[in-house]
Amino acid sequence: MGSQLLLLAFERPALDWHALAPEIVLLSVGGLVTLIDIVFLERARPITAAVAGLGLLATAIPLLTLALDGSDRVMFGGAYVVDEFALVMKAIFILAGYVVILLSTNYVAEGEYWENEYYGLLLASLMGMVMMASSRDLVSLFVALELLSIPAYLMVAWRKRDIRSTEAGLKYYLMGVFASAVMLYGMSLLFGVSGSTLLTDINSVVTAGGASVSVVTLGIVFVVAGFGFKVSAAPFHTWAPDVYQGAPTPVTAFLSVASKAAGFVALLALVFVGFYGRPEVWEPLVWTLAAVSMTVGNLIALRQTNIVRMMAYSGVAQTGFMIAPLAVAGHSTALGDQALSATVTYLAIYAAMNLGAFAVIISLARRTGSAEMSSFAGAFRYAPAMTVAMTIFLGSLAGIPPLGGWFAKFEVFRVLTSSGDTWGYALAVVAAVNAVIALYYYASVLLRMWADEAPDEGVADVTLTPSLLSALVICGGVTLVFGVLPQVVARFTDVSLLALGG
Amino acid sequence: MENLLDGWGITLATFSPLVGVAIMLLIPGEREERHKVVALATSLWVAFIGVLLLLWFDMGETGRLQYVVDEMWIDVIRSRYLVGIDGMSLPLILLTMFIVPMCIIYSWNHFPEPRNPKAFLILILILETGMIGTFVAQDMVLFFVFFEIVLLPMFFMIAVWGGDDRRYASLKFFLFTLFGSALMLVSFLALFFLTGAESFAFTEVADNVLAHGVSRTAQLWIFGGMFLGFGIKVPMFPFHTWLPDAHTQAPTVGSVILAAVLLKLGTYGFIRIAIPLLPEAAVEWAPWIGLLAVVGIIYGALGCLAQTDVKRLIAFSSVAHMGFVMLGIATLTDFGINAAIMGMVAHGLITGMLFFLAGSMKDRYHTLEISRLGGLLVQAPRMGWIFGICVMASLGLPGLAGFWGEFPAILSSYSPANGLPVETFRTFMVVAAVGTVLAAGYLLWLLQRVAFGNPPEEFADNPEIVDVTRHEWMAWAPILALIVAIGVYPNLVFRVTDGAVDASLNDCLQVNTAELTDAEAEALGCAAVYEVGSGGGHDDHAAAGN
User: Fold this and answer.
1) pLDDT tens digits for A24-71?
2) Where are the domains of chain A?
3) Identity of the residue in A395, A428, A440 whose CB atom sits nearest the CB atom of B175
C-alpha cells in the first residue's frame, strides 16, 4: 500500500541519456580523479592534471554529438533544457576549464599545494556551470549556482599559507553567501506570485501583471542583483579585486572567465525566459548596471599598480559591455535575439582573450615572482614572444581590430544602435567613451613591457612550460581567428532563447 | 595588354606585406641583413604591384571603381569584403606604396635605439597593410578595421623607438585616435540602421540616405561623430595637440609615415565617406569645418614661429598644411576637393622629406635645437640644398608640388558650393592667404637659422657632420624627383582625381541645387563653373553596380 502510494506520488521522469551525457562524463571524470587520489596517494600527483584535462576533452565529445543532432531536448517538464544556447555555453565552459587546467598544471605542482583535491573541485565547479547552462527553473538554477560556487570558495583560499589568499577565500565566501541570500529572497517572491519555479510559468505571470506588480518587480530586482554579484557588475563588484589578487592566479583566471560566464548564463536565462514580458523593470536596471560597471570599473582600473587587480577592474568594465545589449533586449523579439547573440559572442571572445592575458601573467610571474606592474618592465627585451602575446590579448580586450575583441565590441554597438531609441544611443556613447578609457590602462601595461628598461638583476630567459605554451597558443589562435574571420564565432553564437520562452 | 590584376590585384597588394611579416617571423632576430632584405623586397614587390595597378588603371573612367572584389565577409552583420580603387584613392595608394620602401632604405643603417630591426621592419610592413587597406576599402566595417590596424604598430613605433618623452606621446596619440574612431564607429552603425541598408557598402548606404530620408537632425549628429573620428586623425584644430608630441617623439621613419600617410586617412575619410554619404549635413557643417581649417592654418603658423625644435616646427607646419586641405574640402566643390587630394599628396611627399632631413640632422648634430644649429650649407652643402628645396616646396613655391595643394585650395574658397555662405568663405580665403605669408615667414626663418651662416663652434670641427650618404640619396632622390615632377606637371594627379571627385560629388551638389532658387544659383555663379545639375556625369554613383 505504502509503496503504491509512493509510486503514485513519484513518477520517474523520462531521462534523455544522450542529453545528459556531458554531465555524466564530467561527473565520472571527477569521480575518477578522486578515486585515483585515494588509491595511488602521492604517486597520483603527476597524472592528475592530465586525467582531468583529458576528461574535459572527453566531455566535449557528447557535446559535439548533441550539436550534430541539433534537436532541442526538454526534460523535467521544462526545468532542464539542452538547446543550442545551452550547448554553446557548455562548450565555452569546457574549453575555458581545459585552459584553466593547462594554466594550473605547473602552478599547483610547483607551489606544493594539494593537487588532486584542486582538480576535483575544479571539475565539480565546472559541473555546476554545465548544469547552469541547461537550467530553466529557479531551483535547478540555484542548485547549479551553489555547486559552482562552493568549490570556488575553497579554491580561492588554496594558497593556505598566504594570509591574502585566506582572506580572499573568506571574503568571497561571505559575499557569495550574502548574494545567494538576496537572490533566494527574490526567488521566493517570484515563486509566491507565480506558484511555480519554472521560468516559463513565471514569465506568464510576470507578463500578465495584475495586483502583484510591486512584488514581481522586487523579485526581479533581487534576483538580478544576486547574479550581478556573480558576474561582478558594479556596484556588486567590491569583492572582485581582493579575491582576484589573493587567489592563486589560475583560479583568478577561472573566476574571471568561467564563473563570470556562468553568472551570465543564469542572467540570460532569467531575462529571456523568465522575465521577458516585463522589460520596463529589467531594462532600466540593466542599463544602469552596464553604464555604472563600465565607468566605475575603468576609472578604478586606471589607478591600479598590481596587474591582477587591474584585470579585476577591467573585468568589471568588460561585464558592463557584456550586459549592455540586454538594456535594449526587450524592445522586440528580433532585437532580443540579437542582444542574446551579442552577449554570447562577447563571452566567447572574452573567454579566449582574458584567459590568454592571464596565461601571460602567470608565465611572466614565474620569472619575476610578482604581479606588480613594475616587475613587467622591459619584458620586450627578455621575452619578446610573450610581450607580443600580451599585446594581442590586451589589444583585443581594448577592442583594436583585427584582434577578436573588436568584433565583440562591434556587436554590442550594433545592438545598441539598432534599437533606434535615445537610451540605446546614449549607452553606445557611454560605451565608446569607456572603450577609450580602457585603452589607457591596457596601453600603459603594454608601454611598460615594450618601452621601459628591463631591471638589471636576473634577466634570465623566461622558460615556458609545455602546458602554458599550449594555453597561449589556444587563446592566441582563437583571439586572432575570431578577429579576422568573425563569421566563425558568429555562426555558433547565433542562438535564441525566446522561441522557448514564448 | 590585358588587365591581369583585375579581381585580385588589390588583395595581393594589401596582404603581401603580411606575407613578408610571416617570413620575417621565421628568421631569428640576429640575422639583421636578411630582415632588411626581406622587408625591402616585400615593399618593392608591393610598389611593383602598385605600378601595374596604375598601368592597367582605366584613365578614361577614373570615377568608376576598378579592380573591384566583392565577397561576403561577416555574414551576420552583412559586412562585405568590398575593395576597389578609383581616382580619389589611387594617388594616395601609390603614395603609400612609394613612401614605405623609401623608409626601409633610409632605415638601412639608421635604426634608432634600441635597434631591433626585425621588430621595427615588421611594424612598418603591418602599417603598410593597414594603410593600403584603408584606401581600398569600400565597406564601412572593413574601412574601420583597416583604419584601426595602423594604430598598434604606430603606437609601438613611437613607444619603443621614440625620444625621451615617448611614453606620453605614444599614449596621447593612441587615446586621441581611438576616441575619434570609437565615435566614428557608432556613427557608422547609426547610419547603417537609420538607412536600413542591406550592407555596409558606401555606395549602398549613400543611396539609402537619399531614399530613406534620414532626418536632418540625425544626419547632423552622425556627421558630427564622423567629424570627430576623421578630424582628430587629420588633425584639425583643436584636436591637433597629439600631433606635435607624436611627431617630435617618433623615430624619423615613424614621423615620415605619420606625416606622409596616416594623416591622410582622416582627410580621405571626409571625401570618401562623410561628405558623399551625408551631403546635407556636410553643407551644414562645411562653414564650421572651414572655420576650424583656417584657424588651424593661422594657429599652426603662429605655433611654428614659437618653436625652438626643428621637428616640432615641421609638426606644427603640418597642422597648417592640413588646414589648407580641409579648407579645400570644406568648399564642397569639385575644384576644392581636387585641390585637397593634391594637397594631401604634396604634403605627404614634402613633409615626409622634411622629417627625413630632420632625422638625418639629428643623427649628425644630436640635437634639433634651432638656436644651436647653423651653417648646414657650409658643412653639408648638398643636404643644405635639399633642405632649401623642401622648405621652398613646403611654403608653396610655384613649380614645386606644394603650390598645387595650397593655391587651388585658397582659390576654391572664393566660390564655394551652392548653399554655403559665400562671404564667409571669402573671408576664409583672405585669412588662408595671410597664412601662406606666415608660412613663408616661418619656413624661411627656419632655413635661415639652420642652413645659413657659419657653423656654430660646438659643431665646427665635428667629423660626424657629413654630407648626404648613399642610403640617404637612394631614399630621397625619388621623392625629390616626384616633388619637382608634380610641381611642373600637376596634371599627373589632377587627371586621375578629377573624374572621381566629380562622380562622388554629384549627389551632394544635386541636393544643394534643389534648395536654391534659380536667382540665387545665378548670383552665386557656381552653376556655370561647376556644371551643377547640368546633367554632366549623371552616371550617378560611379561605383554602383560594379
Assistant:
1) 999 999 999 988 888 887 787 778 888 999 999 999 999 999 988 878
2) 279-502
3) A440
